[in-house]
């Protein structure tokens, strides 16, 4: 099975490593509560596949976030993945863009950032690059060229039911690599023949056999991926406790209730005056509201 999975492989005769990603249930869950216009949905799906591919190139214990901000029709795009393979993401737009060319979708001032948060005790790493090219795949290739100095090729596909991606990267020379100057060119030329339908529908073994049947390819066990938002009633409770009873009661007095809506999964948490009274009546000690991001 290749649904909701990421598979790593080596093309040993080309000195190339790669990954294949396929998301279906995850993609369905990501769109379940928001009616995205077609072009916004397409670029969000590309971002889901791209983020899973990006995370597969590094070792981390935390989360990786791909974010694009700009002044265009789509002003925000965010996709996150944890080291456990849990993903969530969203897009915010003013109106549907006419196409999916990044600079036209997000605006000429748009920047793409890749943030790696290893754990809560270390400083996050962030790479920021301008959007380059005619697609999000082009922007990812540009990011690797600028930030990692790695030859990288990326292919992304989106349908109504699934998103998929293929990433190729050169391996650094070592005593174990084969001396083949044409390996990278050959691997990319063969990958250029892949169709979006093949990326979405074919299992990794089948697709790699079709593309690289004359090469020596080693396919590794796949990783499972899933949509999962870590918001919860408990985290929302802690956030309100962190604000303090007086401030929360002021909000209730002014608005009739306190409502918190998670932007990633659209979960809705509502507190009226009775809920607030019960929340602070049961609270003992100093709150730890450091992990209440929604």
Helix and strand arrangement:
Layout lengths: L4 E7 L4 E8 L1 H6 L7 H18 L7 E7 L4 E9 L3 E8 L8 H5 L4 E7 L7 E6 L5 H13 L3 E7 L4 E8 L12 H9 L4 H6 L2 H8 L5 E3 L3 E2 L1 E2 L5 H11 L1 H11 L2 E4 L6 E4 L1 H9 L13
Parallel strand pairs: 5-12
Antiparallel strand pairs: 1-2, 1-10, 1-11, 2-9, 3-4, 3-6, 4-5, 6-7, 8-9, 13-14
Question: Short summary of the structure?
Answer:
By secondary structure, the protein is of the alpha+beta class. It has helices at residues 25-30, 38-55, 102-106, 136-148, 183-191, 196-201, 204-211, 233-243, 245-255, 273-281; strands at 5-11, 16-23, 63-69, 74-82, 86-93, 111-117, 125-130, 152-158, 163-170, 217-219, 223-224, 226-227, 258-261, 268-271.
Describe this structure in words.
It is a single chain. The chain is an alpha+beta fold and 294 residues long. Strands 1, 2, 8, 9, 10 and 11 form a six-stranded antiparallel beta sheet that branches. It has a six-stranded mixed beta sheet with strand order 7-6-3-4-5-12. The chain has two domains: 5-227, Hsp33 domain (3-Layer(bab) Sandwich), CATH 3.55.30; 233-281, CBS domain Like. A hairpin with a 4-residue loop joins strand 8 and strand 9. The two termini are 32 Å apart. The radius of gyration is 22 Å and the shape is elongated. The protein contains ten helices and 14 strands.
């Amino acid at each position: 099975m290749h649904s909701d999975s990421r598979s790593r492989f080596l093309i040993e005769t080309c000195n190339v490593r790669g990954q294949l990603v396929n998301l279906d249930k995850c993609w369905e869950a990501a769109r379940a509560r928001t009616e995205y216009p077609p072009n916004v949905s397409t670029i969000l799906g590309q971002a889901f596949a791209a983020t899973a591919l990006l995370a597969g190139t590094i070792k981390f214990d935390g989360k990786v976030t791909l974010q694009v901000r700009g002044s265009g029709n789509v002003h925000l795009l965010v996709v996150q993945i944890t080291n456990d393979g849990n993903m969530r993401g969203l897009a915010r737009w003013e109106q549907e863009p006419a196409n999916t060319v990044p600079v036209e979708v997000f605006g000429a001032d748009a920047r793409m950032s890749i943030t790696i948060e290893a754990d809560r005790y270390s400083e996050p790493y962030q790479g920021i690059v301008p959007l380059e090219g005619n697609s999000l795949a082009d922007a990812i290739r540009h990011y690797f060229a600028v930030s990692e100095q790695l030859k990288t090729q990326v292919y992304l596909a989106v349908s109504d039911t699934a998103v998929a991606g293929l990433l190729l990267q050169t391996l650094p020379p070592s005593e174990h690599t084969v001396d083949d100057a044409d390996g990278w060119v050959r691997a990319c030329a063969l990958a250029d023949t892949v169709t979006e339908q093949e990326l979405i529908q074919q299992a990794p073994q089948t697709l790699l056999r079709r593309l690289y049947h004359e090469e020596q390819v080693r396919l590794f066990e796949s990783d499972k991926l899933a949509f999962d938002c870590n918001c919860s009633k408990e985290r929302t409770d802690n956030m309100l406790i962190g604000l303090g009873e007086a401030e929360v009661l002021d909000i209730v007095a002014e608005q009739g209730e306190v409502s918190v809506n998670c932007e990633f999964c659209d979960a809705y948490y509502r507190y009226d005056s009775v809920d607030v009274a019960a929340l602070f009546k049961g609270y003992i000690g100093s709150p730890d509201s450091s992990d209440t991001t929604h």
